[in-house]
What does this fold into?
Amino acid sequence: MSQTDDISNVLPDGVLSQLSPGTSVLLSGPPMSGKQSLALQLLAVGHETGDGVLCVTTKNSAVDVLAELETKVPTLRREEVGIIDCSGSSSRRTIEDVATMRVSSPGDLTGISIGAAKLLQRFTNQDISTVRHGLVSVSTLVKYLDLETVIKFLHIYTVRIRDTEGLGIFTIDTLTHDPRTINAVTSEFDGVIELRETDAGDREIRIRGFSGVDSRWRSYP
It folds into this structure.
């Protein structure tokens, strides 16, 4: 396994270029702030260097998530990607070469956990030692379940990521929840990447929770 997880060329220069194995990060911001795109980019950049990608999608279908990943990595190796689709999409289209687990709804945390365990075993059988996990979005889980249940699930999932020295990228919509909920969810992560839009319509980003990282807001393309 690598000593660090590379995320260079994704965030603004000089902000954050690598993370320790086992780290889980929460991407937070309002709708249309680019959270999902950034999350998938952080997954994709690791795939380019040999990491497996395991993505849990609660809103978009597996087909849509794969299509967006392939825009970020045109040479995506589909056999090294696993998707857990709990979006409730009516599409049952088979995705060639991609391991896809379908879960009835985002409220079925047992189904998500079983799917993740099966996909991790599949990566192990392929001798893929490092996996980048994405969960888009935690907000959907909170809509289906009480906060305490979601927090317990996030704790178990992030511990699994830590113990397997993977990298976790999760997203949450800040306008959907009250401050108490946002703070409770945030506490389960090693750090937070926040996105926002200024009154002038420009996007900004800041990183909190990582030692030695400047936490000021700065321009984000």
